[in-house]
């Protein structure tokens, strides 16, 4: 899962990026509204954290432009405390959720998890595919109850496929959602990670759909 943070306060921006990376997401960040708008307009994000008070272009305008252009990614806005009108304006502009500053990082993480889950059509915090269970809260994966150790890239790959199970996901889509902007992308890497993942979870769970990509099937019977 890949996220975008748009926040002009450098300390807060760094704290958000660090916490989200720590939680297993690929993260891009922008320090003003113009750069933030550009990234959200050109890169596919699974969710965005958007501050409202931004230089160059304010957060409400950024959000309105994205929505006018048909971008549907979940957006969590950061509002000033006690500014109820900001929340109303933000939600009317197309925000999916808000958190008032100052906030606890745990609240941001929980709300982002819920937004990402909901956008992929999952209501529960635990996502299940056959014998594999992914706890989105703890980022733990088990196969028939036994914990499986995954690297951060393997985890991102499995998490994306599980969120979007029963659908063919192309290599391009995976590349776009697993790596941040600065990552040196190599289309072969996806195949390598899929190969490694197949050794850690039942191998037939991830199906290769020739010429199209990969599909994680619920039943795991190939
Ligand atoms: Ca600000």
**DSSP strand count:** 11
Q: What structural category characterises the helix and strand content?
A: alpha/beta
Q: Strand order within the widest sheet?
A: 2-1-3-4-5
Low-confidence sequence ranges = none
Radius of gyration: 18 Å
Series of secondary-structure elements, N-terminal to C-terminal: EHEHEHEHEHEEEEHHHEE
Topology overview:
Layout: E1 2-6, H1 10-22, E2 26-30, H2 33-42, E3 47-51, H3 59-68, E4 75-80, H4 84-92, E5 97-101, H5 105-119, E6 126-129, E7 132-135, E8 140-143, E9 146-148, H6 152-163, H7 171-178, H8 187-200, E10 206-209, E11 213-216
Helix pairs in contact: 2-3, 6-8
Bound molecules: calcium ion (CA).
Calcium ion (CA) binds at residues 8-9, 51, 53-54.
Describe this structure in words.
41% of the residues lie in helices and 22% in strands. The strands form 3 sheets. It has a 5-stranded parallel sheet with strand order 2-1-3-4-5, sandwiched between helices. Strands 6-7-8-9 form a 4-stranded antiparallel sheet, with helices on one face. The model has no long low-confidence stretch (mean pLDDT 93). It folds into 2 domains: 2-119, Rossmann fold (3-Layer(aba) Sandwich), CATH 3.40.50; 126-216, Winged helix-like DNA-binding domain superfamily/Winged helix DNA-binding domain (Arc Repressor Mutant, subunit A), CATH 1.10.10. The protein has helices at 10-22, 33-42, 59-68, 84-92, 105-119, 152-163, 171-178, 187-200; strands at 2-6, 26-30, 47-51, 75-80, 97-101, 126-129, 132-135, 140-143, 146-148, 206-209, 213-216. Helix 2 (33-42) packs parallel to helix 3 and helix 6 packs across helix 8 (187-200). Calcium ion binds next to loops. Residues 8-9, 51, 53-54 line the site of calcium ion (CA).
